Amino acid sequence: MVLVTGEQVAVEWVRAVGAPVDSSLVATRLPRTWDNDTFGASGFVTVWSVDSGHRHDTTRRVTLADVSTWAYRPGGADVRPNWGLASQLATAVEAAALDNPRRTVSPPGGTVLVEDVHVVTGPRRMSDPSGLARFVVGLMFTWHAA
After folding, report:
1. What's the pLDDT at 81?
2. Which end of the chain is more exposed for a tag (fewer CB within 10 A), N or C?
3. 69: Cα separation from own chain's centroid
4. What residue numbers bound the domain in which 119 lies?
5. Beta pairing partners, 135
């Protein structure tokens, strides 16, 4: 029996996207503290599961998730947020969903096959008064135990 949540599946799938997404900088929330040089150079990706459930006719599960891409530009309050990097990360996630969604991932609790990922909402720019640039991509994952 696989004991995995949809959010764990989504996080592992995003970690497997590849460049420019740094798999070590993908989590369910932003870090409390970060190294400005690393965060500024690579950005950060968070995954938040909106909904998860079984399809009524199969053992497949469906998970809706928002994937937020964050970027910071070191230099103080007068420096504009790094919208280019946040956009690049969001576009990479969207492209992976459109071009190569099917993959096996192994979150804690078991191995699952992500059969498909649909882009529900394409990358959209979000305002953030903290000086971080943020884009959000809405994805729907269809998956089952491998």
Report:
1. 85
2. N
3. 7
4. 6-145
5. 69, 125
Please report whether residue 127 resides in a domain: yes
| Assigned domain for 53 exists | yes
Domain count, the chain: 1
State if pTM tops 0.85. Answer: yes
Domain membership flag for residue 102: yes
Angle, CA of 96, 100 and 106, to the nearest 5°: 90
| Structural domain contains residue 1 | no
Look up the CATH number of the domain holding residue 72.
3.30.2000.30
The predicted-structure confidence for 91-133, as pLDDT tens digits, reads as follows 999 999 999 999 999 999 999 999 999 999 999 999 877 778 9
Per-residue pLDDT tens digits for 14-54: 999 999 999 999 999 988 776 666 677 799 999 999 767 77
User: Residue holding tokens 């096996």?
Assistant: 104
